[in-house]
Structure to design on (227 residues):
């Protein structure tokens, strides 16, 4: 096939994926109760297909988690939107994400906030995320390899903390790194099923509320589940 024909074919495929992305926002998110326009706008911009393997690109905008290697998954779009909506991320926020995966949620946070630090414990995923985020131009997103349950004290405090893995409880180190007036979202439960716990820090005290049921891969680390 000639190069010009290959380029036309690639352009058509990209246009189809862009249309699928907009349909996802309208039919899977807005129609199912996501109302934060900043969340919807960010998810309409970030190409989810870039964060999955080539064999899964046609499934990128289905409302389901997809495997990304190392026993991990990229989260279901509705769950991503739900967590971002309860966090109410602001453009001036400094954000910590635990569980980078290949960087999809970090990219959305990069659209919505001032600066993002994201931690991944799997070296291959961290490297892949760093490559994709750089390729897409997210210079305000910083990928770190390490134990996410301990956070990153050197950059604390954080206005928002998002944990993209299921924990037995909210890790104390992360709670301690939450800024005054800050909010943290973490799935808490057993290894198979959790409920989204939202913590808010005000006047030095932490309040909590429970939200939707969810199912994430286990949060492994010193203040999470064992390997």
């Amino acid at each position: 096939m000639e190069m010009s024909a290959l380029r036309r074919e690639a352009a058509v495929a990209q246009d189809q994926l862009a249309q699928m992305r907009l349909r996802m926002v309208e039919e899977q998110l807005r129609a199912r109760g996501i109302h934060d326009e900043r969340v919807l706008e960010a998810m309409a911009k970030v190409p989810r297909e870039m964060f999955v393997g080539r064999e899964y690109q046609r499934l990128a905008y289905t409302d389901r988690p997809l495997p990304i290697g190392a026993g991990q998954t990229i989260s279901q779009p509705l769950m991503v939107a739900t967590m971002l909506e309860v966090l109410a991320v602001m453009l001036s926020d400094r954000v910590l994400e635990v569980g980078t995966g290949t960087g999809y949620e970090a990219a959305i946070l990069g659209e919505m906030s001032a600066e993002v630090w994201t931690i991944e414990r799997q070296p291959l995923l961290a490297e892949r995320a760093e490559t994709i985020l750089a390729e897409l131009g997210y210079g305000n997103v910083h990928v770190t390899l390490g134990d996410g349950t301990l956070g990153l004290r050197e950059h604390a405090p954080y206005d928002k903390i998002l944990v993209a893995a299921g924990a037995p409880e909210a890790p104390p180190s992360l709670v301690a790194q939450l800024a005054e007036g800050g909010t943290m979202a973490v799935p808490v439960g057993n290894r198979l099923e959790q409920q989204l716990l939202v913590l808010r820090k005000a006047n030095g005290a932490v309040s909590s509320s429970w939200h939707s049921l969810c199912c994430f891969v286990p949060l492994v680390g010193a203040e999470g589940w064992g390997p």
Notes: The two ends are 49 Å apart (CA to CA). The CA atoms of residues 196 and 211 lie 5 Å apart. Residues 65-214 form a domain with the Rossmann fold fold (CATH 3.40.50.150).
